[in-house]
Amino acid sequence: MKRIPLLTSCLLLITLAGCDDDVEIVEKEVVVTNTEVEIVKVPTLVIVEVAQGTNIQLGARPDYLIDDMATSALKTKLESCKDGPFYRTDFSIGHRGAPMQYPEHTKESYIAAARMGAGIVECDVTFTNDKELVCRHSQCDLHTTTNILAIPELAAKCSVPFTPADANSGTPAAAKCCTSDISLAEFLTLEGKMDGANTNATNVNDYMNGTPSWRTDLYATSGTLMTHKQSIALFKELGVKMTPELKSPQVSMPFNGMTQAQYAQKMLDEYTQMDVPANHVYPQSFNLADVEYWINTNPEFAAQSVYLDGRDSNAGFDPNNAATWQPSMAELATDGVKIIAPPIWMLLTIDNDSNIVPSQYAIDAKAAGLNIIAWSLERSGPLNEGGGYYYQSISDVIDNDGDMFTVVDVLAQEVGVMGIFSDWPATVSYYASCNKMPASI
């Protein structure tokens, strides 16, 4: 009998985050008797659960943004991840799908968002005149997001018919077409288009041709509109979680007998009817009363109900002065709110060294125990002029598209947000995969 060394290794299968650590080689003793080998110790094989959606397609945009960054440790880190692996993560939320290049709230936009690694995708929820729930950002945006004005029999039903621009009086072209103007069957005959309108137009065709120059109509030839239930079925098929936003009605409530509470309940009921686990759903509303209703009457959805904070429209609002926003973060938490979702700019400010840092709003929200979701990355055009609404608190230090990743990094590492809405989810998915954030499973 003799002893010989045998090199054995512990195989750790990690497809989730693409760990690139060196494999540890461990020398163990084995005992050999004649032709039999007795293993004294054998390391345990560890298999980590494989995440859904590991075959993610991010395209060229993340690389473009990284190339545009100033030299920094963050840029070096992001460059090191160019070969992936990339995977689906709940940190990346598809805002209306992927509307930078696909018509918002269409089947095509939702599929694009899932392919770009969004672990959560949004359907904004409103209703038709027969009280059926559909996916639209606003109850009254059909004139800018669909072809309704090109269909005479449906255009005639619009709340405000199309009127051409009048150069002599300076009156812009206008229209107002609402989901509540038409039935569900009529809604489903429409085609989605890129959101936009040419207010200088003197005819319908020119009015509908208003896509901002930094977006594209390349993928907007036939956007497929969806009911809320159809979006649920699609999201289940795609393997993503869901974040429906209950849109504020632009008609008087009750509407044809449907109260606000019934509207709020109907949205959640459709998830239950379609066997979606409550922990896969993040219901949202700008109306705090809707969120409180869900918390108090639907306990299975309470922990993931999201208060969308639009209080910046209040006069005197200052995200660095708690006295200007009521209720306080502590009061929201006491009332059962778990997640708050403000626009990006409310979470950030600039310190004395011109660094982007968390605002007092962000600090107080975290101190109160609230989770935070930020919206919406890549909703603005190019950032060389400060980024507009979404970056207004940090516009003095924003001057190129590469700054987008700096913003994402501060939101993730310093503010500690749980997710970021984006009009092009590939950007957030790249960052999350590079930083080995948890996969969506």
Task: From the structure above, extract its key features.
441 residues, alpha/beta, eight-stranded parallel beta sheet, three-stranded antiparallel beta sheet, 26% helix, globular
- Give the helix level as a range of percent: 25-40%
How many angstroms separate the termini? 51 Å
Number of strands: 22
- How many H/I helices? 15
Strand order, largest beta sheet: 14-7-6-22-21-18-17-16
**pLDDT under 50 segments (min length 5)?**
1-53
Relative strand content: 15-25%
| Main β sheet profile | 8 strands, parallel
Determine the structural class based on helices, strands and strand pairing: alpha/beta
Radius of gyration: 25 Å
Backbone shape: globular
Overall pLDDT level: 90
Give an overview in words.
- The chain is an alpha/beta fold.
- Helices cover 26% and strands 19% of the residues.
- The longest helix has 14 residues, at 260-273.
- It is globular and about 60 Å long.
